[in-house]
Amino acid sequence: MKTNRLLFLTIVAILVFCSKTFAQEEETKFEPSGNIYGILFTNFHSDFINGNSAFEVQRAYLGYKYQYDNNFSANVKIDIASNENDSKRYAYFKNAYGSYKLKNLSINFGLIDSYMFKTHEKFFGKRYLYKSFLDKNKFGPSADLGASFLYRLNNKLNLDFSILNGEGYSNLQLDNTFKAAFGLSYNPIKNLYSRIYIDYSEKTYAQTTYSYFLGYKQKSKFSIGAEYNFQANNDFENNYDLFGYSVYGTVNIFEKWELFARFDDLKSNIPSGESDNWNISKDGNTLISGIQFSPIKKVRLALNYQGFYSDDLNKDNISAIYFNLEYKF
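Predicted structure:
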């Protein structure tokens, strides 16, 4: 009931705010316009342990954004990808939302991007190689049905709040469970970035996620970042917790060349009455390192190593060399 009331109040707040601010805004001349955009992730990889090699198209995005005036816009994006467990292709609406922007405030409503790990993902900037820690380990979806608010208090501090369906963009179930999420991004000095994120949703048990990020970046020189993440009652299972950290960095060696590395450590707890960590088959360390080359704008290539070292002694480790490409338009 609490989440239902919160959702109702959120919708009312959107309608009231937009009606008042829109009435106050003086209409200015604006030429409506739209544009098509897309992103493609593809790779060739070879597994050192099993000797398997393959070409792969990991993911393709195709979208269209339309700007009605200075404040209102709409965005639709299709995500075409294969699941990790099979080679079949699936197409989903990744985004389908309307957006309202006025000065320092942005409001999105519909099938929207989550703010959960956007800062971490953007900071490292290697999504075409590998998902972020929170995304890869399914702490939450990258997009969901709902509404979000982003307010820029000043050049250093941003606040964001979202009320979401909680199921993700590939599983748009309608039920009475919603997820409330709050984030605070703070840049105390030039080149230093920090963020705190918390979300809460409840079914049989309450699931809560906490994420902390800190990073330093000097453009065209180097970057280093770290995050710690904790989720209580993963998938609404009592006393089934997930936690871990990710550290990453880049160094520019030439104008278009960059070295990079990332290390993840995922762990789970031992529930009462059990003898092993409940997520032991997926717990472990991930190492990614390599070199990136960007020959022209919106095209990136990377030769890199990707390895996973399981905490389960009965499970084989993964060790592979990848050649990844990203194209944007």
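Summary: Residues 22-26 have pLDDT under 50 and may be disordered.
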